[in-house]
Amino acid sequence: MRLTRLSVALAAGFALCAAVPSHAGTLDRIKQDAKIRLGYRADARPFSYSDASGNPAGYSVALCHEVVDALKKSLGLADLPVETVKIDADDRFDAISDGKVDLLCGASTATLARREQVDFSLPIFPGGIGALLHRSAPERLKAVLEGREVPYQPRWRASLAQVLEKRTLSAQKGTTAASWLAKKRDQFEVNAEIVEVGSYAEGVDRVMAGKTDVLFGDRAILLESAASSAHPGDLVVLSRQYTYEPIALAFARGDDDFRLLVDRTLSKLYRSGRIFNTYTQYFGEPDDTTQSFFRFVALPD
């Protein structure tokens, strides 16, 4: 009797395990369904955005399609339809852990905290936080934010507190820039208001309207947001980059086979130099530092 009950319990347990979807079989699922689901943000230009026709476009999206081509060869598929899923900065990682997307093509910084929920590919871009202001912003504010000395003024800590006193600072909700900004305000004991925005476009509009003094975010996105705004001449992105934040493609944790395919695809792209064609399309000619970055992060076969 005990043996029978144990056998029933074990059978039920195995059945339950079999019914639970596993991210470890992403390649098998893609082959079985004959499609891949790519998640993308529509507001992270030039990494990922919706083009004039409403289709996903951008640097990260282009790299994801390189992965799709590699999947076709690896799985022996003549064609592999792509299902695109538009996601927001707030729910992008939930979309992966909930199984709604297989690969996230956006502007996601790979952090240890985020690795508790998702996994990341090799870095695809040497990102970092920058600052955007209205061109008419006080020179003293620009100087302090760039780390330049202001004549006859105390150095960084005191100047920062004085210059940012009662100013309004913004960053997009759910990004590393938002958490970094809050920590910096507390660290330097700055009496400034932080207003989180839903998108870079909203942040730029606030700067143009004088509601936000400084918009913080990924510097590459800030440059693109300024250039594509209605009044690009009225905006300036400071040359200083406050952090180094490697941007990567994201996917489910625990799927070593899928990660190997993604990283192998990127490494081949980097080693061959083909990455520079894609990079140039969205960011312009890569400088020596950028070229060294791709050579450094590429893995040998």
Tell me what the structure shows.
The protein has helices spanning 2-19, 26-33, 59-75, 92-97, 139-146, 156-163, 176-187, 200-208, 219-227, 256-272, 275-283, 288-297; strands spanning 36-41, 43-44, 48-50, 56-57, 82-87, 103-109, 119-127, 129-134, 168-172, 193-197, 214-218, 235-237, 245-251. The chain has 301 residues and is α/β, with parallel strands linked by helices. The chain has a five-stranded mixed sheet. Strands 10-9-11-8-12 form a five-stranded mixed sheet, with helices on both faces. The chain has a three-stranded antiparallel sheet with strand order 2-3-4. Helix 5 (139-146) crosses helix 6 (156-163). The chain is elongated. It starts with a helix and ends with a helix. The model is unreliable at 1-24 and 154-158 (pLDDT under 50).
Key phrases:
301 residues; alpha/beta; D-Maltodextrin-Binding Protein, domain 2; five-stranded mixed beta sheet; 44% helix; elongated
Taking the alpha carbons of the first and last residues, their distance comes to: 56 Å
Strand-pairing-aware structural class: alpha/beta
Strand order of the largest sheet: 5-1-6-13-7
Low-confidence parts: 1-24, 154-158
> Roughly what percent helix?
40-55%
CATH fold topology of the largest domain: D-Maltodextrin-Binding Protein, domain 2
Shape: elongated
**What is the CATH architecture assignment of the largest domain?**
3-Layer(aba) Sandwich
Q: Using DSSP, what is the number of strands? A: 13
Q: Report the portion of residues in β strands.
A: 15-25%
CATH homologous group name of the largest domain? Periplasmic binding protein-like II
Largest pleated sheet? 5 strands, mixed
Q: What integer is the average pLDDT? A: 88
CATH class category label of the largest domain: Alpha Beta
Rg calc: 23 Å
What string gives the helices and strands in order? HHEEEEHEHEEEHHEHEHEHEEHHH
Q: Please, how many helices?
A: 12
Instruction: Kindly give the count of domains.
Output: 2
